[in-house]
Amino acid sequence: MQKIQTQGLHHITLNGADRQTSIDFWEGLLGMPFLFEQPNLDAPDINHLYFDPGDGRLITVFTDESRKKDPAPTPNDVGTVHHIAFSVSRVVFNQIAQRLEERGIPNSGHKDRGFMDSFYFRDPLGHLIELACYKFEPPDGFTHAMVLAEAHNIRVARGDPSINDVHLADAIEDLVRRSQPSLSANRGPKQPY
């Protein structure tokens, strides 16, 4: 028996309401280009919209003009989606509160998650949306996930409850030390003054 190895998220498809609500939210609020549309190939009376969330992958939405938006929170039961998180740059993150306020969209306000900062709000269909910004950039050749896995190991070894700035900084230093050679026999910290 062998695994079926994945190589990244391909797309997420949501059941939407009418076409314009989806376009106004995904492109008009979140800036995701509306790439194309076609009928749902399994149910031709349903429309299928495709948006680029910024990484070339896809968010797709099934729409039907007979369905109306309902902002009531989606169920939080076992097996349901709790929230969908999208990455934003620091400069965009710093503008989120103002841009949501301009539209009268209730939100969580800034949430410090230790290794990232977040805002939460609901889309017009009640899905919980998170806009997140990492507090760090991984070194060349590494991903955010690799830094977080290393920071987790450091956090656990130190008995700390959650990842914070010092774990991230130490993880980045450890990854660089292990991956890049140096002519120095001792690569430890020094006091040059």
UniProtKB/TrEMBL annotation:
Any coiled-coil regions, as ranges: none
Gene3D superfamilies the record matches: 2,3-Dihydroxybiphenyl 1,2-Dioxygenase, domain 1
SUPFAM superfamilies: Glyoxalase/Bleomycin resistance protein/Dihydroxybiphenyl dioxygenase (SSF54593)
Domain VOC as annotated: residue spans: 8-134
Top-level lineage group: Bacteria
Pfam families: Glyoxalase
InterPro entries the record matches: Extradiol_RC_dioxygenase (IPR052537), Glyas_Bleomycin-R_OHBP_Dase (IPR029068), Glyas_Fos-R_dOase_dom (IPR004360), VOC_core (IPR037523)
PANTHER family given in the database record: RING-CLEAVING DIOXYGENASE MHQA-RELATED, RING-CLEAVING DIOXYGENASE MHQE-RELATED
Protein name: VOC family protein
Origin organism lineage: Bacteria, Pseudomonadati, Pseudomonadota, Alphaproteobacteria, Hyphomicrobiales
